């Protein structure tokens, strides 16, 4: 594992790799790595000559300063985990000023409505911050492939739209959600959950699975209310949203139609920790 902190140094190393005809895979992360991230890195290693893992807690994608302050971070542990996968990984861990030499502010983007629902609705400016850093990373690294987890499915669709609209020549690869033994979607934030709540948080995925079983037989509105009621009756979690949308436009739906793909999305708070998850419905 090679730790690189500045863009120019990274670009010089990557130029030498390109000379050797090595393809480049990029896995963008905010650190506090868990098995979900490592599964992306493993896939990137299997498909590319060289892999860059970026570790940067991007301030402009946090609408809540407390969430940013409490975001877990442990660079040494992250580096050990990556080194155990491969000693050749290039870890790009820039400082804030390397990424934002001037004002720490996002650019403004429009994603044709994809950014308006769910995470976009509840986390003001979140996707402007995500798109700002992802565009910068893609342009700095110039990867052939970049890997994103489906846990952040809305982010994945927005990144796909970003590269299409900016004509960035990269293949965006969506990778399946990794789950803890009880079904809780793996997330860096899980570390902040009290142990007993983390154990009971399998409830979130159980609820999504039961909603999935009912999808098609019941209307989307029925399921929205049903999920709301499940969370009302559970003292561990506060539901922020549950939504059923088509996969392409992420627009809330009323009824299932033939030949379209749908997903259910959820965001909940557990003891002040925000958790998200989603499930493909067909
Ligand atoms: O998914 C994440 O961890 C972040 O949103 C990303 C893509 C690394 C951008 O900061």
UniProtKB/TrEMBL annotation:
<dbReference type="InterPro" id="IPR014729">
    <property type="entry name" value="Rossmann-like_a/b/a_fold"/>
</dbReference>
<feature type="binding site">
    <location>
        <begin position="149"/>
        <end position="152"/>
    </location>
    <ligand>
        <name>ATP</name>
    </ligand>
</feature>
<keyword id="KW-0566">Pantothenate biosynthesis</keyword>
<dbReference type="GO" id="GO:0015940">
    <property type="term" value="P:pantothenate biosynthetic process"/>
</dbReference>
<dbReference type="InterPro" id="IPR004821">
    <property type="entry name" value="Cyt_trans-like"/>
</dbReference>
<feature type="binding site">
    <location>
        <position position="155"/>
    </location>
    <ligand>
        <name>(R)-pantoate</name>
    </ligand>
</feature>
<dbReference type="InterPro" id="IPR042176">
    <property type="entry name" value="Pantoate_ligase_C"/>
</dbReference>
<dbReference type="Pfam" id="PF02569">
    <property type="entry name" value="Pantoate_ligase"/>
</dbReference>
<dbReference type="GO" id="GO:0004592">
    <property type="term" value="F:pantoate-beta-alanine ligase activity"/>
</dbReference>
<comment type="function">
    <text>Catalyzes the condensation of pantoate with beta-alanine in an ATP-dependent reaction via a pantoyl-adenylate intermediate.</text>
</comment>
<feature type="binding site">
    <location>
        <begin position="186"/>
        <end position="189"/>
    </location>
    <ligand>
        <name>ATP</name>
    </ligand>
</feature>
<keyword id="KW-0436">Ligase</keyword>
<feature type="binding site">
    <location>
        <position position="61"/>
    </location>
    <ligand>
        <name>beta-alanine</name>
    </ligand>
</feature>
<comment type="pathway">
    <text>Cofactor biosynthesis; (R)-pantothenate biosynthesis; (R)-pantothenate from (R)-pantoate and beta-alanine: step 1/1.</text>
</comment>
<dbReference type="GO" id="GO:0005524">
    <property type="term" value="F:ATP binding"/>
</dbReference>
<comment type="similarity">
    <text>Belongs to the pantothenate synthetase family.</text>
</comment>
<keyword id="KW-0963">Cytoplasm</keyword>
<keyword id="KW-0067">ATP-binding</keyword>
<feature type="active site" description="Proton donor">
    <location>
        <position position="37"/>
    </location>
</feature>
<protein>
    <recommendedName>
        <fullName>Pantothenate synthetase</fullName>
        <ecNumber>6.3.2.1</ecNumber>
    </recommendedName>
</protein>
<comment type="subunit">
    <text>Homodimer.</text>
</comment>
<feature type="binding site">
    <location>
        <position position="61"/>
    </location>
    <ligand>
        <name>(R)-pantoate</name>
    </ligand>
</feature>
<dbReference type="InterPro" id="IPR003721">
    <property type="entry name" value="Pantoate_ligase"/>
</dbReference>
<keyword id="KW-0547">Nucleotide-binding</keyword>
<feature type="binding site">
    <location>
        <begin position="30"/>
        <end position="37"/>
    </location>
    <ligand>
        <name>ATP</name>
    </ligand>
</feature>
<dbReference type="GO" id="GO:0005829">
    <property type="term" value="C:cytosol"/>
</dbReference>
């Amino acid at each position: 594992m090679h730790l690189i902190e500045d863009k120019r140094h990274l670009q010089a190393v990557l130029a030498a790799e390109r000379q050797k005809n090595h393809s480049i895979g990029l896995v963008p992360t905010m650190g506090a790595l868990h098995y979900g991230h490592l599964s992306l890195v493993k896939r990137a290693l299997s498909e590319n000559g060289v892999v860059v893992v970026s570790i940067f807690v991007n301030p402009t994608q946090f609408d809540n300063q407390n969430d940013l302050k409490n975001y877990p971070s442990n660079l040494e542990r992250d580096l050990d985990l990556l080194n155990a996968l491969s000693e050749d990984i290039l870890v790009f861990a820039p400082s804030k000023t390397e990424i934002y030499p001037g004002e720490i502010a996002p650019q403004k983007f429009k994603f044709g409505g994809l950014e308006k629902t769910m995470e976009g609705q509840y986390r003001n400016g979140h996707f402007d911050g995500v798109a700002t850093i992802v565009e910068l990373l893609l342009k700095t690294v110039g990867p052939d492939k970049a890997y994103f987890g489906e846990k952040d499915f809305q982010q994945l669709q927005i990144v796909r739209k970003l590269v299409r609209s900016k004509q960035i020549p990269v293949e965006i690869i969506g990778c399946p959600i990794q789950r803890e033994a009880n079904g809780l979607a793996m997330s860096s934030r899980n570390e902040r959950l009290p142990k007993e709540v983390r154990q009971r948080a399998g409830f979130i995925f159980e609820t999504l699975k039961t909603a999935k079983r009912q999808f098609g037989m019941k209307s989307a509105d029925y399921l929205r209310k049903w999920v709301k009621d499940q969370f009302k009756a559970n003292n561990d979690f506060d539901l922020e949203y549950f939504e059923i949308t088509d996969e392409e436009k992420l627009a809330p739906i009323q009824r299932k139609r033939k030949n379209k793909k749908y997903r259910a999305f959820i965001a909940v708070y557990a003891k002040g920790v925000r958790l998200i998850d989603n499930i493909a419905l067909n």
